[in-house]
Amino acid sequence: MENRIRSEEKNKLPLNFKYLNKLGSKKSKELNKKICYVKCDKFQTDFLTRVTPFKAFTRML
Amino acid sequence: MILILSANKDFTTNEVIKWLHIFDKKYIRVHEFELFEIKVIDKKILLESQRNSFYIDDINSVWFRRGGIKFNRLQFQNESVNKIMDETQFCLEDYVIKKLESKRHINKQSNNRTNKLLILEKAVAVGLDVPTYFLADNTDHINLGKTITKSISENIMVKSAFDDFDGILYTSIIDKHEDEVFFPTFFQEKIEKEFEIRCFYLNGKVWSCAIFSQNDEQTKIDNRIYNYGKPNRNVRYTLPPEIHHKICILMTELDYNCGSIDFIKSIDGKFYFLEVNPVGQFLGISDICNYALEKEIADYL
Q: One MF term from GO for this chain (chain B) (predicted)?
């Protein structure tokens, strides 16, 4: 699938725009929409996410 | 009191805040879209937004992560008055920011824009090896297959670049000549690498991680094109003392006391400097290498 940025722009762009990569996938976009954020006064943010440990607990023992 | 200038959605800030709670340190978190008014109460400067209100004298340390303090600047009807008041408001705003930056801090709002070209020049000046680079608007002098191009802007995401996808400007190898001229573009010699090194710098200390990205076709040019199925091997790494020393000089020259720095260790044993990002992501190497960098930041503040 050709990126449409270069054809849409009237002015010249740097050459690296020709090598533009796709980011993510339809599936990951849908998954991102499902991420649940919670407003959290303790962390002073509207976007606290529940995270799973980066490493399996058994690896940390 | 610690002042954290960040983005509402910034995950890294949450991780540092976890440690601030453990250390029982008090903090104020400012989001990227907050607009402050400067008030004076009993000769003390008070900053007030919809979410926050604090005296600048009560702030002991500042962490500039993202965004920054933005002010609600008033407009005046008379053109001449408006000009004077614009300058007056600028003086007050500038004073507030400089006063906050004179406290114990991690990076500065006034110095948050990086210029990759100037950074490369400074890296050369401090004696770091830098792959040969140049700007060009044509491919006449490009060595095909041995030259890469990458963005000189910090933002590399392009929204709606494809029908169903956003785009991202990764590092790419130039594999063919172009007939037409283009906007001035950054080109750099491609270095045959043994591995890549991602470093985190904080006040003279450097933590490094070696990323073995060269054996995977997907990651060999840019390790950020992650192979989730078979991730690159990442291990703790210690840079040679002379490279560490040059990093410290470079960061002092750039007036950054914190940042993420990328190197390539070439197959001929040289350490090639690539770039510095003062607001880069560091949780990756922190987790993988058990460096607990978020704890280091919370401890410093």
A: ribosomal S6-glutamic acid ligase activity
